[in-house]
Amino acid sequence: MKLVGTLLSHFVRRVAIPMQIYGIDYELVEASVVNDQDLIRNHNKLVRIPSLVLDDGDILADSNFILDELDLMVPDDARLTPSKQENRRSYGQVIASLTGSMDKATAWFYEARRRPENLVWPEWAEHLSTQLAGGLIQVEEMATKNPSDSPYLFEDKITHADIAVGLVYPMANLVTPGLVNENTCPRMHALSKHMNATEAFMSTIPSK
Ligand SMILES: N[C@@H](CCC(=O)N[C@@H](CS)C(=O)NCC(=O)O)C(=O)O
């Protein structure tokens, strides 16, 4: 399989990390949406990353859909999703909040860091950063309602939700340190620290 994208993208890492945990081999086709649009277009005319080229030539896009497909390639008990039906709804809420934060982190980055300085709309950048923080604060509130000795959000096992926290918390903490930090989001802080120390996270750290 070929994973098209760059590990600088949290959406790409969100796919790379489970592939690592599942032991699914892949080749990373290093491609950034800023510098390698033609290369990405060859695989996905939407010019978006991540795109996953399967061995049969089919191409999957969108991290949520890609993860759904990867989850089907492993035994039930290895899947990075909650096992209990009763957790389905809250898991969906948590994933929507966290991937929403990822969307806002991306949008913030382009608004605040990529635009020519005279074209930046500071109020919009501020709004985006508050949304980025909001997704995490929302998950912190949900986690606070369900106190647990486990570092993980669901069923004392790693799920895609924990991986998403490990990816987006550091960005939220960097962009909005006053809103998302150890004191305001203690569960998210501890979970992010834990996840970022795992082998799957360490082995997918972007090299540049
Ligand atoms: N919903 C998508 C979002 C992916 C996404 O936003 N990727 C960014 C890079 S981090 C991208 O390709 N941006 C270029 C574009 O959408 O034009 C997913 O979950 O995969």
TrEMBL record:
Leader sequence residues: none
Domain of life: Bacteria
Start and end residues of each GST N-terminal domain: 1-78
InterPro entries named among the record's database cross-references: Glutathione-S-Trfase_C_sf (IPR036282), Glutathione_S-Trfase_N (IPR004045), GST_Omega/HSP26 (IPR050983), Thioredoxin-like_sf (IPR036249)
Stated name of the protein: Glutathione S-transferase family protein
Organism of derivation: Sessilibacter corallicola
